[in-house]
Amino acid sequence: MDLRLAAYAVCIEDGRVLLARHVRQDGEANWTLPGGGVEHAEDPFDAVIREVAEETGLDAVVERLLGVDSRVIPAGERRLPGRPALQNVGVFYRVRVTGGRLRPEPNGETAESVWTPLPQVARLGRSSLVDIGLALARNAPPTGHVAPVPVGGPIRH
């Protein structure tokens, strides 16, 4: 089984959430939270700030830890054929933007970042990470854990 540790930013301001449009090499795109893989020996706290800056052009500060989510993506549902199952461990933080300007990620997979009104999120083709992050922000579970988010329709791994 493969393992991926990642940090994600949940930034909500004025009834809008900051989303990033991730475009894969094959051209398929979906909306996700700013964030991504934690580099070797990097603290997830630092990784989320780095990822927000890289993907969106915005400066941000962490306000609080929202929770940790662990999901196993079966081998048959992986985008890369022939790979084993993947355990994705996501650390979700509430962040606040302090400066910068929205822009696409230079030489990266984030084509654009936008402030999206919360009621519109349900209609978007999006990563399950969006629903997990919003549930953590909305419910603030004392355990920092939310129930599994079903994947299918407009929601993907």
Give keywords.
157 residues, alpha+beta, Nucleoside Triphosphate Pyrophosphohydrolase, 4-stranded mixed sheet, 4-stranded antiparallel sheet, globular
Commentary on this structure:
- There is one protein chain.
- The two termini are about 15 Å apart.
- The protein has a single domain (about 1-140), classed as Alpha-Beta Complex (Nucleoside Triphosphate Pyrophosphohydrolase), CATH 3.90.79.10.
- The protein is built from 2 helices and 10 strands.
- Helix content is about 15%, strand content about 45%.
- The chain has helices spanning about 45-55, 130-140, and strands at about 1-10, 10-15, 15-25, 30, 35, 60-75, 85-100, 110-115, 125, 155.
- About 30% of the residues are buried.
- By secondary structure, it is of the alpha+beta class.
CATH class placement: Alpha Beta
Mean pLDDT across residues: 94
Strand order of the largest sheet: 5-1-7-6
Please state the second-level CATH architecture: Alpha-Beta Complex
- What is the number of strand segments? 10
Radius of gyration: 15 Å
Low-confidence stretches: none
Report the major sheet.
4 strands, mixed
Percent of residues in β-strands: 35-45%
H and E string: EEEEEHEEEEHE
Overall shape: globular
The SS-based structural class is alpha+beta
State the end-to-end distance. Answer: 16 Å
- Roughly how much helix do the residues carry, as a percent range? 10-25%
> How many discrete structural domains?
1
CATH topology: Nucleoside Triphosphate Pyrophosphohydrolase
Fourth-tier CATH superfamily name: Nucleoside Triphosphate Pyrophosphohydrolase
Number of distinct helices: 2
Oligomer class: single chain
